[in-house]
Amino acid sequence: MEETREIIANNFIEEFVMQDMQKNPVVQTRFPPEPNGYLHIGHAKALCVDFGVAEKFGGKCNLRFDDTNPTKEDVEYVDAIQYDIRWLGFEWDKLRFGSEYFDKCYELAVKLIKNGDAYVCDLTKDEMREYRGTLTEPGKDSPFRNRSIEENLDLFERMRTGEFEDGSRTLRAKIDMASPNINLRDPALYRILHRRHHQTGDKWCIYPMYDFAHPIQDAIEGITHSLCSLEYEAHRPLYNWVIEKCGFEHKPRQIEFARLNMTNTIMSKRYLRRLVEEGYVSGWDDPRMPTLCGMRRRGYTPEAIKDFLERAGVSKADSTVDTAMLEHCVREHLNLTAHRAIAILDPVKVIIDNWDDGYENITLENLPGDESQGTHTVRFGRELYIEREDFMEEPPKKFFRLKPDGEVRLKGAYIVKCISARKDENGVVTEIHCTYDPATRSGECERKVKGTLHWLCAEDAVPAEFRLYESLMAPDANPDAEDFIENINKNSLETKHGFVEPMLAECKAGERYQFMRIGYFAADADHTPQKPVFNRTVGLKDSFKIS
């Protein structure tokens, strides 16, 4: 006999779903992105809620593109969104487009006109705004509100056939211009827009508004729980009005939750588009962008993103999550999964004076503590590279790296002692001369020194480019402010040129590594064996404090 699995609700949405399942055990959700840009971390939260609720309660989730506004929509975004969803580890039940329902929306709009629940209005957008009233003052009726049903049907048909110019007329719901909820003051249901649609071509020159199309689509698809962000809470009465007036027997339940807000992170798609179009970033997949494709290129993992969103939680109240928590989740996952390798970002040469010609192979673990991940070898010889910051001629106290007459261990190899340093005409150190102790090979010697440095054999070192990313926004800047461009961090990208061990030149774009003592890096999309390029994902140091 199969054991029944106990399901525990982790948030208020899941509590509502469990209550509803007592009457109807079916759970059907949907994720409805607009294909006018790339998904970002905020969309990922909605993804995890929509797909997660369906998965938890044995239901299904549809992917439905909200393509009711062809102005900035494109097939490029349709394809990218599907890729991102699958990259995060989700799979939809049915793939739908809002445009599939345009015929049904038009049919239902005609039904509303015939029932006296909608009318064609000639007011301009500015006039409609003036007639709508304010939060404290009621609106006033449009002078076209009392047109006859016959006239409205005629005008709406002529709107459909393309007789009128963009913006000259709208179809509006006839509800209540004195309603305390401004969304119920005769909202627009259809607008004229002579634009070619990426799915329907030139079939339509009128398009339904989201608030009209969305509840219709939900009802037709049998959506049980329409989960959306908190700004739609005030739209819920209109959502229910459309369902009721269109005569649907199936009535989805709309539930709202707070959007994801993060420190120093732009979440507005309009602002992100501006960053791309005005050249402040290299594209939607720039590793500084909060888009999923940007995070993927930077080296973030789906597991870390979902872990972060689970920790951020689902609530009714708006709050702002520290970006450091996301970096903490990325760092935790990469610590368990990223192979170790050696890179030198700012090299200075070390020459071991008492080393004979030749090389020794040094074995390094790919993932310390996990023997199943194997090992790899690097060559150790007379001329090496170390990080420039690992040597100081006049070091402060407790400087346990290389210094005159000081000793350090070279990772996996020998203890070396600094004898001298050569400089160029500008006083910059160009060579560090050392001696090594042949009796101190790692694993064969008990003598201890306080410092251990990573290194690369100069003969084998492959030139590489390293891109070090910081927040795109200056510290303490408001990413939601209209003047956000003025607060862009001008030091958000630093490029360094150093060396990597040979195997890293052959890795594939997207592969992730921990560069010893430096941080976590991923091979960039620009990476080739001839020109290796790595993006810093996160550093080794964790600034996030778990409360």
Q: How is this structure best described in words?
A:
The chain is an alpha/beta fold and 547 residues long. The protein has helices at residues 12-21, 41-56, 75-88, 102-114, 125-132, 149-160, 210-221, 236-245, 269-277, 292-298, 302-312, 323-337, 502-505; strands spanning 28-31, 60-65, 95-97, 118-121, 170-173, 188-192, 206-208, 225-229, 253-257, 261-262, 320-321, 339-341, 343-344, 347-352, 360-365, 375-380, 383-387, 407-410, 415-423, 429-436, 452-453, 456-457, 462-469, 493-500, 512-515, 519-523, 533-539. The strands form seven sheets. The chain has a seven-stranded mixed sheet with strand order 12-25-26-27-23-24-13. Strands 21-18-19-20-14-17-22 form a seven-stranded mixed sheet, with no helix packed on it. It is elongated. 39% of the residues are buried. The mean pLDDT is 95.
**How many DSSP helices?**
13
Structural class: alpha/beta
Got a strand count? 27
Q: Specify the overall morphology.
A: elongated
Helical residue percent band: 25-40%
**What does the radius of gyration come to?**
31 Å
Q: Give the termini distance in whole angstroms.
A: 43 Å
Whole-number average pLDDT?
95
Largest sheet: 7 strands, mixed
Report the uncertain regions: none
Strand order of the largest sheet: 12-25-26-27-23-24-13
Instruction: Report the β-strand fraction as a percent range.
Output: 15-25%
Chain-wise SSE layout:
Elements: H1 12-21, E1 28-31, H2 41-56, E2 60-65, H3 75-88, E3 95-97, H4 102-114, E4 118-121, H5 125-132, H6 149-160, E5 170-173, E6 188-192, E7 206-208, H7 210-221, E8 225-229, H8 236-245, E9 253-257, E10 261-262, H9 269-277, H10 292-298, H11 302-312, E11 320-321, H12 323-337, E12 339-341, E13 343-344, E14 347-352, E15 360-365, E16 375-380, E17 383-387, E18 407-410, E19 415-423, E20 429-436, E21 452-453, E22 456-457, E23 462-469, E24 493-500, H13 502-505, E25 512-515, E26 519-523, E27 533-539
Parallel strand pairs: 1-2, 2-3, 8-9, 10-11, 12-25, 14-20, 18-21, 23-27
Antiparallel strand pairs: 4-5, 5-6, 6-7, 13-24, 14-17, 15-16, 17-22, 18-19, 19-20, 23-24, 25-26, 26-27
